[in-house]
Amino acid sequence: MLRAADQVGTGLAGIDVAGLSKAYQGRHGPSPALQDVTFAVRAGEFAALIGPSGCGKTTLLHILAGLIEPTAGSVSLPRRHPGRLGTALVFQGASTLPWMTALDNVAYGLRLMGVPARERRERARQHLGQVGLLAFSDAYPHQLSEGMRQRVNIARALATDPAILLMDEPFADLDEQNRLLLQDELLRIWQEDRKTVLFVTHSLDEAIRLSDRVLVMSASPGRITAEVPVPLGRPRDFQVIRQDPAYGALSARLWGELREEVLRASRS
Amino acid sequence: MKARIADRWLAVISPLGLLLLWEGLSRAGLLDARFITPPSAIGRTLVALTRTGELPYHVGVSVERIIAGFLLGSIPAVALGLAMGLSRSVRALLMPIVAAIYPIPKIAIYPLIIFYLGIGEASKVSIVALSIFFLVLLNTMAGVLGVDRTYFNIARAYGAQSIDVFTTIAWPGALPSIFTGLKLGMGFALIVIVGAELLGSDAGIGFLIWRSYQIFAIDVMFAGLLVTAVLGWLATITLDWLERRAMPWRTEHK
């Protein structure tokens, strides 16, 4: 089996991370958040990243999104092109801008990229339509439900046509039913153009349902401790894969990888 | 909806009831009309003062001073407040000065201002500007600091330049606090302008009240107070209206 880590430096990867470390300057000296993280995500692959709370998953995504600088190591990502971002990040929790309408929120990335007003309106409408919210173009976030707001956030990221889509537990605040709905929608949209996705979650089920491969992260300081491929076909139907014996086996294996780390995280 | 209409009526009933009680006590002889002018007499005085043009003149003078001082104080305050909220170093540089000057009652600086700027309009406009400047400044800064960090990260993750962060995150995010500052400032502006006109002036509502004291025209003093109250109320309504216009995304919160 070709491990993604073996592809590091080959140029095949959509995301190529090698020896990445990050330490925060704490009151009692530096406290490491990530230690020697190495992995790769192939172009067009949907990868999930799971790990115990506080293991540095968000830190990793923020480094990939260019929000913070790593202490050591290298990251290679596709460059941004005119009219196209290298990476777009869907944030955790409430991240629609409350002072903009749904349409302006979706157009926000395009606006910052300097896309002309007419074109960005057009592109924003198209992506708002893709998540089924065209009728709510002029609504402000407080008039939308949590699930609708998260759709707006996803549309905002997709509107910038990123080479890589980074998602930070985007469905964590949703109730179970809405989460299932949004997962289905995300898969449907992803199926259309197969962007490279790195999806952070703490839900084993979510990781299995969505991804081609699950990266397991250790308790803080975070390292990648395992890579588990998901041997389920696409397009996926939750009703079907739930009954697939591979699903249960995979879930058990992931929990096996994760259990020690979660215990370690809760002890520290 | 019904409750809202009921609220509106209740809001009218309390001041109206107070005026009626006041008038009633006066007619019954329980309040001495020579010392405490009844509302009906204040009304007659207001009409008379308006006919002579005296009241519109003094009100006009005060309103002009308030508006000029308000703009002169709040615009730089908002700009500087945003800068202090966004930049740690600007904050570190200016905060000690602000913290030192803010608690000084601004009316205490008024004699100095008159000394430098004379008794004319410049000193009045300046004292209003000065008294609201720090209120608006501190509220604006607090507003920026209170904006959820996620919003700044969103802007940066999508490649925002400093100017974009300023216009799309800091400014709209701080607007609610800016309006809180402006409303508090408007209250202070009224207090200070009337106070300044009492102390040293040749026109304005405060001057009207002070002169009336000197000639023992109690009804005019009451008329001046009533006009001041109405001015304050109008200012609040205007700012509320502006606030709703400036922040359409918040209208349904009320």
From TrEMBL, chain A:
Keywords: ATP-binding, Nucleotide-binding, Transport
Keyword match Nucleotide-binding: yes
GO MF annotation list: ATP binding; ATP hydrolysis activity
Gene source species: Candidatus Segetimicrobium genomatis
Domain of life assignment: Bacteria
Pfam families in the cross-refs: ABC_tran
Coiled-coil annotated spans: none
InterPro entries in alphabetical order: AAA+_ATPase, ABC_transporter-like_ATP-bd, ABC_transporter_ATP-bind, P-loop_NTPase
Keyword presence, rRNA-binding: no
Protein's name according to its UniProt entry: ABC transporter ATP-binding protein
UniProtKB/TrEMBL annotation, chain B:
Localisation: Cell membrane
UniProt domain ABC transmembrane type-1: residue ranges: 59-243
GO terms for cellular component: plasma membrane
Top-level taxon of the source organism: Bacteria
InterPro entries: MetI-like (IPR000515), MetI-like_sf (IPR035906)
Keywords for the protein's UniProt record, in alphabetical order: Cell membrane, Membrane, Transmembrane, Transmembrane helix, Transport
UniProt membrane topology term: Multi-pass membrane protein
Protein name, UniProt field: ABC transporter permease
UniProt key word Zinc: no
PANTHER family: ALKANE SULFONATE ABC TRANSPORTER-RELATED, MEMBRANE SUBUNIT, TAURINE TRANSPORT SYSTEM PERMEASE PROTEIN TAUC
Segments traversing the membrane: 66-86, 93-119, 125-147, 188-210, 216-242
Family statement: Belongs to the binding-protein-dependent transport system permease family.
Biological processes per GO annotation: cellular response to sulfur starvation; transmembrane transport
Main location: membrane
